Fold:
Amino acid sequence: MSSILDRSSRNFLWQHPWQLALAIVGIALGVAVVISIDLAMESSLTAFEQAGKAFTGTATHRIIAGDGGLDERLYTRLRVEQGIQKIAPVTSGYVELAQHTDESFKLVGIDPFIEKSLQAVWQQQQNANKTSDFLTRLLGEPNTALMSEQTARRLHLKINDDFTVMADNREQRLKVIGLLAPDNAVSEQVLARLIISDIATAQEVLGLFGRLSSIEVLMDKYHPEILTKIGKVLPANALLVSTDSQSQSMREMTRAFSINLKAMGLFSLLVGMFLIYNTMTFLVVQRRRLIGSLRAIGVTRRQIFRLIIGEAFLLAIIGTLIGIALGIALGQGLLYLISETINALYFRIDTTSLMVTPVQIGKGVLLGMGASLLAVLPPAFEATRFSPVTVLTRSQLESGSRRLIKAAGLISLVLIPGGMALAFFSGKSINLGLASIFLLLFGFALLTPVCTLLFMKLIERLFGRLLGILGRLPARMVSAEVSRTGISIAALMIAVAATIGMDLMIGSFRQTVAFWLQASLPADLYVSLPGEKMTADKTLADQRLKEKLAKLPNVQMLSSVLHTKIIADDEFTQVSVFELNAKLKKSFIFKHNVEDDLWNRFEQQQSVIVTEPYAYHHAVRIGQKILLQTAQGKLPFEVIAIYADYKGDRGHLAMSRQNYRHFWPDLGYSGIGVYAKDGADVQKLENQLSKLLTAEQSVKSDRAIYKASMEVFEQTFTITETLRWLSAAIAFTGVFSALMALQFERIRQMGILRAIGITTRQLTALIVSETGLMGLVAGLLAIPAGYVVAYVLIFVVYQRSFGWTMAFYFDPWVIVQGVALAFIAALFAGIFPALKMAQTKPAEALGTE
Amino acid sequence: MMVKRVFLLLAIALIILLLMVWWQPIKFPSDIKLTIDNFFSATLSKVDSFFSATVTKKDDSFTNILSKDDRDFARALNLREFKFPADHGAHNSYRTEWWYFTGNLKNSYNRKFGYELTFFRFALAAETPISKSAWRNNQLYMAHLTLTDVKQDRFYTAERFSRAGNDLAGASNKKYRVWLYDWSATTQGDSDFPLRLQAKSDEFAIDLLLTSQKGYVLQGDQGLSQKSPEPGNASYYYSYTRLATDGHISTADDQFSVIGDSWMDREWSTSSLSDEQSGWDWFALQFSDNSELMFYQLRRKDGLPDNNSSGSFVLADNTKIPLKMQDVSIKILDNWKSPHSKITYPSRWRLTIPVQKLEIDVVPLINNQELNVSYRYWEGAVSVNGKKNGKPISGQGYVELTGYE
Structure:
């Protein structure tokens, strides 16, 4: 018996290759997007984690400092005075290759004589004899360096070759004296963007004399006294952090970003589920006679169920496999976008290559298989309901579904308000915020069939009067098969709503940032002073430069800012230290009413102003005090105001320079704002200014800064945009194919129409207007749905994710685009079947079933 | 049937998937393999060419560098006037230098211990580099710490390395202080002694106070100790032959208050041994009559004692009697094969010095006192028994055996 079943199944499936392909494509694309996001995101984060971990091997902790860097004598104190043995000093910084200017490497200065138990990457070389040679030279010969075999090959370097790097404002030659052979993918990736040298060479090349970037510490549980010993000599600007907590906080930092991306992946998978559901339903409905006959000859319900699930299983396997392969390829593409965004928003990632782990593949398999089987359950159950006696007719099927549609409409009336309630009453949870969006979209989808029926009735009335029977027919055809058309319309609606929602959100965000940027750039010219804020020489140079700027004719006044890090609550907090003037004071956009004496308090009292994201993430209110680590211990600083800032989503503190200089060492400036006298030629001033600057310093006009900032903004949204287009494209292909399938299913019906005298041209018009109508309904319904999605994204998800509040900017063009998109996509979906039908002779069409 | 086929397909599909994924030019992370390397031993195998001619696997590039600028280093050619505390400090213009402390200790229950704490300095190049970086430094320090626990028949060893840069290691010319990380020998007052030795590893530690009993002895010819005939193949060498010692030692599970006698050797040179010499047996013995004997027998590659072997006998009143090779006869009574290195060392000697009417047997407190560190040698506590002028005499000391293979 089962062989008959198998054969019937196989024969039938082979007759519908397009349907099969569609289902497979649906699952494959869904899985591909989900796992590509997962892979790319994980790879970026592991790259960052491993860069720290694999390099220091077994280190469990790390001593790091704010911008002042660590005094190298701290290492001596720890090692000589405190007798802590398992520690390693590191001085690192970035250098650019002179030959390939776009390639930057991290130059890591190490001490070859650290304890072997730290198992640093250069201590793990298999060929110990070779290693020892270059480590002795590394120490003894200045400007010698190690790199990985792969990097050397890429740069066409051999042992004893020289290469030139740009660092500390000058060209410097380094000599490759040894190649490291990473014995696994992780260290290979870590080493790909590293140049290792002795700590002396690193200090000389980077100009970081007297400074360490970090001290790596291996602390086992048997020696808890090490903690106390380190605590005894740790300076105020330094922190001892565990590497675990560091990577944890890094994950915490990018969590919101990652959740949002993954939500988009899930959205694609949902669309994929729709496709396989649609296909299997089609395949089941098509076979209702066959299934009825099978039941009549004694095939049980269970066997029928197994048959359908078996078919789905097969499709799911193939789809998932293709999806994983596709996902890996897609992941390669996304990796760049994601790591760029992480670089811009969070922290620097030096190496990125896609790391595929069995776990992630497993996740993809589970998701693909699970989602497919879940989507196939309804049609599989439906198949078992076909009675052996009366082979169900379509009308019966439809009348049954009418009841369902009503129920769905009612459920949606619960889901939509429920979704809104969840959105606004779920505290700070990003996941629940996103869940509410899914809930809302689902609610709107359930509402779609009801709305479709109503809309079609309206159309029928309207066009029926004007065009008679042919005017009524398209609307009727949609209504008559609402169990199938409704789902397609709902799917299209969801896709368009998501697009509208995202578009509105990004647009609002862009407007908000643009407005904020314009307001917060009061100076005419901005001098940027990048580089490591570590050494006293640089501070002095900064101050001299500022004096020179002030003396220039046509300069009315200056302002300055220093971006630095201060320890608050045992973690580094970004602090912007301002030297304000009247214009700059006006540029702050406060999130509340401020009192007149605010600036006075800012300058005179132990106070800070916090950015909105900081206030959000740390639940800080005005009047509250933040404890900041100073050389005199922890001191309270009162929060006196909260202001808008969209530079990063972690937020920062703002402090007056006067205040800062009381408690912390002067580290110079990160930027100087130059205000020209009225009527002065700003362009000329800019030229004058640029002559005073070193190579790495630069001067930009407020316009140029604005432009550059907006570019960064666009860049950080590239990944979001890309994923949005990806899921939209998948959704449209899906809906497009579903609509096409729907039309092909009706060849017989069309044959009848042709037989009773409808011309091919009329038939084409009929089909195209039917799908067009469907598109229109979807588009119209997508407007409120998209609007609600945008609203929840802006005021719930993004605020929770990043702590930013945005103004809602309504762009009618987005709506028009959305509706047009739905309409045109649907219209096109009708054209191909229409042409096919037009070519089919009525007799042939009637004979097909 | 269907189910079976589906599973078959699933299996095939999984294989295809695996193949696909492996074939992709994509990396799979795996656990980092932890390989314990021999970096230090390899590094020091070059360095040890300074104080012994035992290097068999010479690294050509490195030796070339060394021989090239060998002439840039100062050499022990002439007699010099020793000044303290300046000469307790480093002599960076010479290639090699060491501060050797050894001693025999016992606790109040007469439980016996031996210890060694040695600081070595090696110059990677003669010139002092000019750099603003405190880490740019050509002086490399190595230190060895051992403890012999006779009762437990255990021998503990540990070693440390560092450059002198950033004050991680060094030897002061202003007051007696030599250190490498937290291991140090530091004077406790304004004069050179008492000297406090502090060193610890994960397993054991010493904290001892050394007080000079007899002052220093200039070895060789007024401190110039010729090691082979070529001029300059010599070192500057002085010793403190008897340093009253008390303090604490600790092992993983125990701590002991101890007293005893230590010996300090100071030596610096640029080259010492000649190509024909393979190593030395060095004796530093303290006798019950308050006299001491230092003697090193240089061994030639053909197995015979070298003519340049020499030493000194220090009487109770600190009078030094120089000894030449022909003054001392050494007979090996027993051998011991190390289970770790499979090297056979002599393990019992009869020393006869006819001019002093001295005949003694020297016996290691325990056989296994081999340092299996970067540079391998045997250095251990010994006991002495025999006759002087016909009267019984006893003693203790340390023996160092290098260049055995």
